[in-house]
Amino acid sequence: IMMFLRCHRSKSVWAALCVLVLCWLYIFPVYRMPSDKEIVDEVLRQGQTWRRNQTGIDLYRKLLTECCDPKRMFAVTKENSPLGKVLWYDGELYHYHTVNNETYPFFVQDIPLQLPLKKCSVVGNGGMLKNSACGRDIDQADFVMRCNLPPLSKEYVNDVGTRTHLVTANPSIIEKSFQNLLWSRKAFVESMKAYGSSYIYMPAFSMKPGTDPSLRAYHALADSASNQTVLFANPDFLKKVGHFWKRRGVHGKRLSTGLFLVSLALGLCDEVTAYGFWPFATGLDEQPVSHHYYDNVLPSSGFHAMPEEFLQLWQLHKSGTLRVRVGPCVHHVDE
């Protein structure tokens, strides 16, 4: 009898637990990330139709201003980071840099942009740009932002354009492509000429190993009398933007450079169009798409949550807050 009672009691407990779990799932359903095919189908249904929504644009600028203050904080300046200011690295716990007499002179006095910017192109490096003929559309913007020193050589011009006003330079690129600038700076300085008189936006205070290469890049350009201006990303801004998107469902270890730039553009620009944001291996025509427009080197797995990021951008596209170009840019014959 005792055995029967214990067995009956344990079944009752399990039944109660199952009911509780089912109730919980009903009230708080588990989020399921749509499959690549479902996302492609959704994009095809929407098509290229887009209507600007000034209310949505104003709302996102307000949200980003309240959380992250991009107009004042997106770069480290003498104004927001005086001598003695502690810059906590946003990509590492427990590491920081105290602004001193060595680093303070590297900072611009204040944010050097004429704000608000009008029409902005934010150019990702996705393979969707290949054979897109979007170069002219990209270049027609008043301000063009690019990611991680992408190639702009002759064979890519028709697809990605030539103009650059701000380009990010990840310290890992300085390490891999230019041997951390420890032996020679000539190749780096020559390669930077492709970006004209642009701002070079570097996360020097995101990860400790990236600080010295970033400062060397600053010296290399300054010593060559380059007409480019190095802006160091403010780690406090990057951290707050990361939290902003995490609250909206992006769960990667770190945001992609592209989403950081889109966030910056939404805070600074009257109108934003994003190009080259397509993290899927198949295009709208069900044909393979390379990871980048210039190669098919895949990123480290698990670092970024690119499909989640794209879904956020696509929601903003559907609401008219920004425009995401996902197909070829069609030009009329009489243009």
UniProtKB/TrEMBL annotation:
Gene Ontology CC terms, in alphabetical order: Golgi membrane
Positions of transmembrane segments: 12-31
Lipid metabolism in keyword set: yes
Catalytic activity: a ganglioside GM1b (d18:1(4E)) + CMP-N-acetyl-beta-neuraminate = a ganglioside GD1c (d18:1(4E)) + CMP + H(+); a ganglioside GM3 (d18:1(4E)) + CMP-N-acetyl-beta-neuraminate = a ganglioside GD3 (d18:1(4E)) + CMP + H(+); an N-acetyl-alpha-neuraminyl-(2->3)-beta-D-galactosyl derivative + CMP-N-acetyl-beta-neuraminate = an N-acetyl-alpha-neuraminyl-(2->8)-N-acetyl-alpha-neuraminyl-(2->3)-beta-D-galactosyl derivative + CMP + H(+); [alpha-N-acetylneuraminyl-(2->8)](n)-alpha-N-acetylneuraminyl-(2->8)-alpha-N-acetylneuraminyl-(2->3)-beta-D-galactosyl-(1->4)-beta-D-glucosyl-(1<->1)-ceramide + CMP-N-acetyl-beta-neuraminate = [alpha-N-acetylneuraminyl-(2->8)](n+1)-alpha-N-acetylneuraminyl-(2->8)-alpha-N-acetylneuraminyl-(2->3)-beta-D-galactosyl-(1->4)-beta-D-glucosyl-(1<->1)-ceramide + CMP + H(+)
EC number(s) reported in the record: 2.4.3.8
Membrane topology, as annotated: Single-pass type II membrane protein
Disulfide bonds: 120-269
Keyword terms of this UniProt record: Disulfide bond, Glycoprotein, Glycosyltransferase, Golgi apparatus, Lipid metabolism, Membrane, Signal-anchor, Sphingolipid metabolism, Transferase, Transmembrane, Transmembrane helix
Compartments where located: Golgi apparatus membrane
Pathways involved: Protein modification; protein glycosylation; Lipid metabolism; sphingolipid metabolism; Sphingolipid metabolism
Molecular function terms from GO: alpha-N-acetylneuraminate alpha-2,8-sialyltransferase activity
Protein family per UniProt: Belongs to the glycosyltransferase 29 family.
Protein's name in the database: Alpha-N-acetylneuraminide alpha-2,8-sialyltransferase
Organism: Electrophorus electricus
